[in-house]
């Protein structure tokens, strides 16, 4: 059974501003999808092979999303919070939908303006994995159970491959396991050939 990484992982997502209609009061709401379901995305390339990841549509069924927070670059001030109703996470048919109300504090409203004016256009979410599986033919890791979602954060620069270290460690473990299995199979085949040759010589 594959080793389950305990490290906190980060993935990118798009951030949308909920625009107020002309004449309406500004609502300071932003929304987007932390991830979409059953939709493979590229993790990284290694030795001319591209590795992918996808989230199973039932991955959040038992996930701890009891008090997720909205931050900037995964640190510092909290701009919205699930426990006070200013952050809502809702797994729907498409994926994990998030909506944040950035109206409660001056700092949160400044964050909204940075998003609204296009200075900040990306988000990232932080989570840990409970269970996942790996398809050796498609080189795809499927996260079947998310253990906990920690935060959704507006980010200045989208996460780079170094932030995928836990996922990469997992897949590299699978690659090594494949190599060991291949080496064992080749060794077994050589032993069979040697045995057949000895039997032919003795006959």
Which short descriptors sum up this protein?
2 helices, four-stranded antiparallel sheet, 203 residues, alpha+beta, 11 strands, seven-stranded mixed sheet
Report Rg: 23 Å
Order of helices and strands: EEEEEEEEEHEEH
| Largest sheet, strands/sense/barrel | 7 strands, mixed
Beginning-to-end CA distance, first to last residue: 44 Å
Strand content: 35-45%
Number of domains: 1
| Helix and strand composition category | alpha+beta
- Mean of pLDDT: 81
Assembly status: single chain
Please state the overall shape, judged from the principal axes of the Cα atoms: elongated
How many individual helices? 2
What's the total number of strands? 11
Low-confidence stretches: 161-165
Percent of residues in helices comes to: 10-25%
Explained architecture:
With 203 residues, the protein is α+β, with helices and mostly antiparallel strands. It has one domain. The chain has helices at 106-116, 165-202, and strands spanning 9-14, 16-17, 29-36, 41-46, 49-55, 69-72, 75-81, 87-91, 95-101, 122-135, 140-155. The strands form 2 sheets. Strands 1, 4, 5, 6, 7, 10 and 11 form a 7-stranded mixed sheet that branches. The protein has a 4-stranded antiparallel sheet with strand order 2-3-9-8, covered by helices on one side. A hairpin with a 3-residue loop joins strand 8 (87-91) and strand 9. The longest helix has 38 residues, at 165-202.
In short:
By secondary structure, this protein is α+β, with helices and mostly antiparallel strands. The chain is built from 2 helices and 11 strands. Mean pLDDT is 81; it is low at 161-165.
